[in-house]
Structures are given as C-alpha cells and as structure tokens.
Amino acid sequence: METITISASKTYKVITDSALLARAGGFIRNALGEKGKKLCIVTDDQVDPLYTAPLEASLCEAGYETVTFAFPHGEASKSLETLSRLLEFLAENQLTRSDALIALGGGIPGDLTGFAAASYLRGIPFVQVPTTLLAAVDSSVGGKTGVNLKAGKNLAGAFWQPSLVLFDMDTIKTLSYDLLLDGIAESIKAGAIADKELFLYIQKAERLTSPETIAHLSRRAIEIKREVVEADERDTGPRQLLNFGHTIGHAIEKSSDFSITHGHAVAMGMAIVSKASQEMGWSQEDCHAPIVNSLRRFRFPLDCPFTAAQLSEAARKDKKRMGDSITLVIPVTLGNCQLKSIPVSQLEDFIKAGLS
Ligand code: GLY
After folding, report:
1. 242 lines ligand 1 (CB under 6 A)
2. Which atom of ligand 1 lies closest to the CA of 242?
3. Atom of ligand 1 at shortest distance to CA of 239?
4. Among residues 140, 174, 208, which one ends one of the domains?
5. Which of 168-182, 258-272, 321-335 shows the lowest per-residue confidence on average (mean pLDDT)?
6. How many separate domains does the chain show?
7. 249 lines ligand 1 (CB under 6 A)
8. Spatial separation of the C-alpha atoms in residues 136 and 221, rounded to whole Å
9. Positive or negative CA dihedral for 261, 263, 264, 268?
10. Atom of ligand 1 nearest to the CA of 243
11. Cα-to-centroid distance, 61 and ligand 1 (Å)
12. What is the pTM assigned to this prediction?
C-alpha cells in the first residue's frame, strides 16, 4: 500500500493499493470520523455495474447507509443540468452536513461530485474513488472541481479538496489500452516538469504496462502533483506548470470534436511545445527527443492532424488566455519547465515551429 499525504487547505491521504474497494468503508470511516451516517455514491452508467456493488457492501459494513446517483457516461453529462439533478437528489435523500459524497469513476464523476460537494449545504465532505489512471494521477488530487458551460469546458467550478482519495489499482484492469494511455500521458508530463529520472525509468522498463511500472509512474505523478498543489493550491502560479502540453492539447481535443482524447492530445501537445521551444532557443538542452522517445515507447500516435492556423485559432479561445497574451509551459531542461507568456499574435508561429 502507498500513502501520499497532501497538505493544502485540507490535509488528506491518497491511498493506492490492490483490492481497496472491498476495504473502502474502513478508510472512509477513518477519514470522515464517526458522525456521518449517509453516503451518496455518484457514478456513471458504465462504472456503476462494475464497481458500485463492492463499494456499497464495504460502506455498509462500516455502518453507512448509502444511496446511488448514476448518470449517463460522457462529457455531455458534465453539465449544470446533471449538477442540478444531483443537488436535488441529495436534498430529497436528506443528506446533512455530516454526511458525504463518494465520487466513483473517472474525471467526469470526480469533477461533478466535487462541485456538488462544494455547493450542497454550502459545502460537505467528499471522497474520490478514481477508476481510471487519468483520474487517479490528475483530476482526483488537488481539489479542482466543476462542470462545463455551453461556452467551454470547466467554466464553472470551485476549489474543494476531497477528504480522501482511494485508488484501487485493480480497477485499471478493466481499462482499454487507449484509456490507460490517457493516464500515462499525464505521468510523462509530470516527469517533464519535475522528474528527469522518470525518463530513464521509462527507457529501461521492460514491461511498460505491468502493475509495477504503472504503480511507479502513478506514484511519481501524484507526488509531483502534491508538490505543485501545496505550493499553489489556487492555480495562480506554479500549479500552471501542470498545464505542460495542455494549451495545444486542448486545441487538438477541441479541433477533433473530442475524438482525440485528453491524454492523447496532451501527448501531441508536449511533442509540439518541446520541439517549438527548442527551435525558438528557449530550451537549454534537448528535451524534445527524450519526451518523444518516451511517448513512442508507449505507442502514442504523435502526428497532429491539424495546421498551426487551426490550432492557434482554437487556443485563442482557451480559458487560460489573459487578454492579448497566453501562458505556455516551456521545458527548459528535462524535468524543469517554466511559464512563459507570449502575445497571442505569436502563437501560430510558435505552433508552426513545433509542427515542422
Ligand atoms: N489538472 C491540472 C491541475 O489540477 O491543476
């Protein structure tokens, strides 16, 4: 069992192990204390038949009464409408401030549940139980919660830290290779911003998707996320380093109508930004080759199907844009990135250099 403690506005544990779902009740009781009686499990209709029953059994064994709110899977459900249905469901089931929500699933249940927890009765506790690698290494840790608006992704939300994160490594056995890659991309990103050794590890690893390799990559990604979140919980400075590859990645996701998934788009984004930074003379050493070689070892498709003009147009609408400038994350040396603000008017040339 691995335990990583996050000390932000709330101090909580991220626990990783096999067969954790069956033991979740005890860990949740420890984290939430003796007062709570009722828990609402929030999940989607793909995860529900796989994991709600064992989780529920363990929660009941720990003395909890549970109710389950399951919504249709997919990005369309990460909406104000689902949030409103969830809040009404909590009120109908008379959850009180000493009760809690359990987010079971990937990033969509996680973000939606966190936002509902932040707003129901002006804030009740919640626990993250990620069942994808992407949610385990990124969205379940750090307290970013929210839903999409018509104008864009994650435009309404709150910083609201969970009381506990439980990552049962067995749940990734049901993921497709593509879904696994989405999480691996975030782990390679963590290495690029803060852990040069990770690249050596990937180069040497014989069985890239063995439980040991995945456990190592996810542990390092969570530890690096901890450092950044503890330094800047509200995302006004160093936390933005977690966006390496994301500005271009989001533009790729959006331009593909989300048929290219987050991690795959971030992988292409990292390849483009590391190449462009080198071409611009902003990197002090070759960060592009090790990043791309690591991504290729996992067989990430890296050929971007969009032009620099298309991507810069999509990136202009990114929520990270500040007036006429946009902040990019630049690899200076491997394992060391910096924020660099550039005029939006230079973005197309920058991307062009990365695609060449
Ligand atoms: N996913 C980026 C962050 O949590 O800041």
Report:
1. yes
2. 2
3. 5
4. 174
5. 321-335
6. 2
7. no
8. 9
9. positive
10. 2
11. 34
12. 0.94
Residue 142 in contact with ligand 1 by CB distance below 6 A? yes
- Residue-by-residue DSSP string for 64-125: -EEEEEEE--SGGGSSHHHHHHHHHHHHHTT--TT-EEEEEESHHHHHHHHHHHHHGGG---
Note whether 123 and 198 are same-domain residues: no
Whole-number Å distance, alpha carbon 192 to ligand 1 midpoint, is: 15
Do 45 and 186 lie in one domain? The reply is no
What is the arithmetic mean of pLDDT over 101-118?
A: 98
Does residue 167 carry a pLDDT above 90? yes
User: Three-state SS for 304?
Assistant: coil
Which of 214, 209, 204 is CA-nearest to residue 169?
214
* pLDDT tens-digit map of 200-240: 999 898 888 899 999 999 999 999 999 999 999 999 999 99
250 lines ligand 1 (CB under 6 A): no
Please tell me if the CB atom of residue 143 comes closer than 6 angstroms to any atom of ligand 1.
no
Query: How large is the average pLDDT for residues 181-185?
Result: 96
Residues 297 and 344 in one domain: yes
Task: Name the packing angle between helices 288-297 and 262-280 (round to 10°).
Answer: 160
Tens digit of each residue's pLDDT (9 = 90 or more) over 135-151: 999 999 999 999 999 88
Q: Determine the structural domain holding residue 20 and report its residue range.
A: 2-174
Note the pLDDT tens digit of each residue in 18-60. 999 999 999 999 999 998 899 999 999 999 999 999 999 999 9
Q: 17 CA to middle of ligand 1, Å?
A: 23
Residue at a domain's end among 148, 174, 200: 174
350 with 271, same domain? yes
* Whether residues 28 and 167 fall in one domain: yes
Read off the CATH number of the domain in which 214 is found.
Answer: 1.20.1090.10
183: CA distance to ligand 1 center in Å? 13
Taking 70 as the threshold, does the pLDDT of residue 320 lie above it? Answer: no
